[in-house]
Write a structure and sequence with these properties.
119 residues; alpha+beta; 5 helices
Length: 119
Amino acid sequence: EQRPFFEPDDLHRVFSYRHKPAKRPKDLPIRYGFEMSAIYFSALDGALLSYTPSHSEQELELSRRVSRVYSGAESIQAQLAEGLMGAQDYVRLVAGAGHLRVLQTSERWPVAGLVSPVQ
């Protein structure tokens, strides 16, 4: 099965290794330090997506929810696997947390530009 979007585990890795804030909350799952301007996802159907961090409260919450270590059965990965969350809901969460853009369109991603967090 082709992956049309970032897996929650992919985002967890990115959030885990990005830049550390000067004053880090104890429950923030960030370990190492590098500054990230954007990450990209190239889908098998030809779409190219980018996610630019916002450093917002929504992104902090997303970073916790994509981590199986920090949220276990409540993690987005677990909810997707159990059918408790749909793929579109997950995309909207990511779009609401940062800046999700379609750089190259495809059948699954037909509209270029910023992805709206609301339908």
